[in-house]
Design a protein that fits this description.
This protein is α/β, with parallel strands linked by helices. About 45% of the residues are buried. The chain contains 16 helices and 19 strands. It folds into three domains: about 90 residues, no CATH class; about 80 residues, Pdz3 Domain; about 250 residues, Rossmann fold (3-Layer(aba) Sandwich), CATH 3.40.50.1820. InterPro entries: AB_hydrolase_Est10, AB_hydrolase_fold, Hydrolase_4, PDZ, PDZ_sf.
């Protein structure tokens, strides 16, 4: 069996598009920058896949229309330098590309068939999203010296349009620091669902996180806590409601995964028309993490009940130190529970980072009182759960959120729905065995789901919106 930390990483991250990061989103992993200019520059794209990440940088694949193709890079070339900086491996290349934008000069020295060549040209920008049904605006959300890339799909035609504008859905992504700019992966499940909303007459808005994609910031998503990230989402909400084409009284939050937690926190700061959530959590983060080891390890990953119990008891003290205290991280890493847990590879830890985010990020989530936030929600709320959602674990959470919202409401304004065969990344499978086989094989994926894209999630959202607006 694979190391449990690797299983947990896949499990927790759900449907992260790692292969696409390698070939086309190198520059989405930009380093923090305090620079701000009149317009938000578009990141460039080199556009190659290496034979090996750690060895000499041999080109295995080149993306059509990319900088690599434009300057004449060929499959089989060995890259020696970039802008006079030595490149020993693919991993060496990433920081050298981090702050190159469309139009910037790039020069490579390569070896091709034992001959040394110099290639140069201008960085090409990442492909933008396109749509037959929407006019797409790439703008920025500016606040406190931060500039976050925003993407707005405005329907070319909308039956809901009034003199006040069109209604809008604000899609709030999950916990990872991956880009939500899908120009290079138009078939990704999220984008297909966005098209459903646009065709139904709703504008759809998204905003990148700090330091991700085109965004410019002195901080990066991977280093900030929940409240800092929340501030960016709230700034996005303000920008969306201020848009001339949007009806500010008809903005709906649509949270996916961790986005379900951001939704009530955002609604507590600004008025919204309603909240939709899919694949969310309804308990403290410490309890959620315990459930991952105690319950889902047996249900989805084949561990025996006895082994799951041993793992749970081993890691609980470390989880408590990490999530339920203010102990210094160095002190935690010296504890018996931490050493035993990492030795047993129960959790992916890399320095100050757990599951690719700073340890303070998840600690700050555990400090939030989400129950109180939901109890104060006064707008229509729809919670959806997929019966094959590994990450969200229990359908009870969707119903619990609905009960909280309804508790202080004279009318039952919230409801929960279970979608049979739906998994976390908006795909559909016949049963758990089919899902687990697909997970092991990596195909299909959320990037190219084919027939597995689950259109029911979007359809249920649209039908619910019709109900609450009648």
């Amino acid at each position: 069996m694979r190391a449990w930390s690797l299983i947990m990483k896949e499990f927790f991250m759900g449907w992260r598009i790692t292969s696409l990061i390698l070939i086309v989103s190198l520059l989405g992993m930009m380093m923090p920058s305090a620079e701000a200019s009149a317009s938000l520059k578009r990141k460039g794209i080199l556009g190659l896949m290496p034979v090996d990440r750690s060895g000499p940088l041999l080109v295995a694949q080149i993306l059509p229309g990319s900088t690599a193709e434009t300057i004449g890079l060929k499959v089989g070339d060995s890259i020696q330098t970039l802008n006079n900086q030595t490149v020993g491996s693919f991993d060496d290349l990433i920081p050298l590309l981090a702050n190159l934008y469309a139009g910037d000069h790039i020069a490579l020295e390569v070896t091709r068939e034992k001959k040394k060549l110099k290639l140069s040209g201008l960085m090409q920008e990442r492909q933008r999203e396109q749509s037959q049904h929407a006019n797409i605006e790439y703008r920025s959300v500016d606040y406190a010296n931060n500039r976050l890339r925003s993407i707005l799909h405005l329907p070319k035609q909308s039956i809901h349009s009034t003199q006040d504008g069109v209604p809008a859905i604000y899609f709030i992504q999950g916990y990872t620091c991956d880009s939500i700019d899908y120009g290079l992966i138009p078939n990704v499940t999220t984008r297909q669902m966005i098209d459903q909303f646009v065709i139904a007459g709703y504008a759809v808005f998204r905003v990148e996180k700090l330091g991700v994609g085109d965004s410019r910031s002195s901080q990066h998503c991977r280093d900030v806590d929940f409240n800092t990230e929340l501030t960016g989402f709230v700034a996005g909400l303000d920008a969306l409601k201020s848009h001339h084409a949007i009806d500010p009284a008809k903005v709906y939050l649509w949270g996916h995964s961790l986005g379900v937690l951001y939704a009530p926190a955002m609604a507590s700061q600004q008025n919204v028309a309603g909240i939709i959530g899919y694949g969310g959590v309804a308990k403290p983060w410490y309890d959620y993490m315990v459930d991952l080891f105690a319950k889902q390890s047996t249900k989805f990953w084949g561990l025996s009940q006895e082994q799951a119990e041993r793992n749970t008891q081993m890691i609980k003290p470390m989880l408590a130190d990490w999530l339920k205290s203010n102990k210094d991280w160095h002190t935690i890493t010296q504890s018996k529970s931490f050493k035993e847990s990492t030795r047993a590879e129960l959790l992916a830890v890399n320095g100050d980072y757990v599951l690719t985010r700073h340890y303070e990020f998840f600690r700050s989530i555990n400090q939030q009182d989400f129950q109180s936030m939901w109890l104060n929600i006064k707008v229509p709320t729809l919670m959806m759960h997929g019966s094959l959602d590994i990450q969200a674990i229990s359908e009870d959470w969707a119903f619990q959120i609905a009960r909280w919202v309804n508790q202080n409401s004279e009318q039952k304004i919230a409801k929960a729905i279970v979608i049979d065969g739906a998994e976390h990344g908006f795909m559909r499978y016949k049963n758990r065995e089919a899902l687990m086989q697909a997970s092991r094989e990596g195909r299909p994926s959320a990037v190219n789901p084919g027939k597995h894209f689950d259109k029911r999630i979007g359809e249920l959202t649209i039908n619910w919106l019709k109900e609450v607006t009648q």
